[in-house]
Amino acid sequence: MKKTILALTALSLSTTAIAQQWNGPLAYLSKGQNPDGTPIEYTGDLGEVADQALVKDTYAWDFVEGITTEVGPRQAGTEAEKRGRDWAVAWLTKHGFQNVADEPFEMETWVPGDYHRAEILSPFPQPLVIQPLGNSASTGIEGITAEVIEFENVAALRAAPDGSLSGKIAYISHTMTPTQDGSQYGFAGPARWVGAGIAASKGAVATVIKSVGTDWHRNPHTGGTGFPEGVSATPAGALSLPDAANLERMFDRANGKPITMKLTLTPERLGTTTSGNVVGEIVGRDPSLPPVLLACHIDSWWNAPGAFDDGAGCGIIAAAALHVSRSGQPLRTIRVLMAGAEEVGLFGSVAYSKAHIDEPIGVGLESDFGADRIWRFESNFRESNSDLHAKLAASVARFGVANSTIVARGGADINISRDQGGAIIDLQQDGTRYFELHHTPDDTLDKIDPAQLRQNVAVWTQVAGILANEAGPIKPKD
What is the CATH number of domain 2-109+271-468? Predict the structure, then answer.
């Protein structure tokens, strides 16, 4: 059995499958059917069900295909996000989850507006492609015209004297490269996360950044930015990587002449609106045992239907919960949490923890790094519960997942596990191409490789199933 599954894993991951195959000879799989039209059945113990999920899971694809097709982009706090939550509630209910609910919370809502343009007026007049950053201010439809000052990174911006950017537009670059573990996001991310706030504190009237990403399409990467207490929000946008490179060449060729930009960004603040967290459960045999929490986020940015970020993640966790139930009712309840308003500030994760902090969670896991294969297993109980850590790591080795000594910290939407000091597992996905798509218009269904998506489901099924049938404490108290 193991040799067969390893061979299938190698075969499925050595070939770059594309989503269009679902319109071809394998289309029946996307409908949950065998070639003769009969329903696909999953039988056997947990390991056998996980093995079957590797080659014939349809739940995850059905979820991500459905929400991206029927709902599309799901900006937090908007009517579109509400439709996404309604869709997810209906999907979970249809597939037999219990205690399905949309748990609302209030949030301050920002939307991008309708007009985004950056134009170099001199010395090399031409338009540049830009998108606004979340939480930034509007220039007004008339725009802002100012000299652009170049900074090669956030450290250089921090070193600029106070007041030195008065009346100027700051441009912030970085040198992000692709990595399997996505670690360069932490290196380059501050250009977006804090760059505009730092520039504003030094007098800048606006900020533009080189998109925090690794693709070379004219697709800017949006995302949230922040402003320190006491610093008013200013207009801020991200240039596509090719346009940012072009701007940097202009600085090289300008020979000291000022580069003047006209920037027009028209985001709006809608005030307080409603978002929500979608939850559902596979109810366990022993309700006294703390549940296994599987998390994702249901919202996306406005500029894409959010297939990688994070429709796939929601499909993966829901599929895994269903597969575990196919091997028999688990001991612990498995709860799925599809958090709202993650992209704009983790509002859903914070709201969920606040509402449920007195309800112990046995262990928390999140899927929010695309749909490419899982390659590494991490926990925060490798020392305190070494037997369980080793059992889990060994159980997924046949799917090409390596053990690790790295301490899991958990994804953004399991704040409750961190707040409770509980058990956390990270199933690390291959991030080599994730930041080609992240927060761009390219985050679409066709980028998902069905074979790699199924590998995620198989791994999650195996891990969630072991955890859901663990009778003792998963992470003993220190």
Answer: 3.40.630.10
Report the predicted TM-score, pTM, of the whole model to 2 decimal places: 0.91
> Tokens for 361?
């969670």
Contact yes or no for 60/318 (Cβ under 8 A): yes
Return the CATH number of 113-266, one of 3.40.50.300, 3.50.30.30, 1.10.1740.10, 2.40.50.140. 3.50.30.30
Residue type present at position 223: G
CA atoms within 13 A on the CB side of 377: 24
* Nearby residues of 205 by Cβ (< 8 Å), 6 or more positions away: 144, 146, 167, 168, 169, 234, 235
pLDDT for 43: 58
pLDDT tens per residue, range 400-413: 999 999 999 999 99
Separation of alpha carbons 366 and 45, rounded Å: 24
The residues spanned by each domain of the chain are 2-109+271-468, 113-266
- Quick one: tokens of 38? 């009969």
Q: Output phi, psi for 365, to 5 deg.
A: -140, 145
Q: In 24-143, where do the E strands start and end?
A: 98-111, 116-122, 126-128, 130-132
Residue 449: both structure tokens together: 């490789």
Dump pLDDT digits (tens) for 445-457. 999 999 999 999 9
**Is 473 buried (19+), middle (13-18) or exposed (0-12) by CB count in 10 A?**
middle
pLDDT (0 to 100) of residue 457: 98
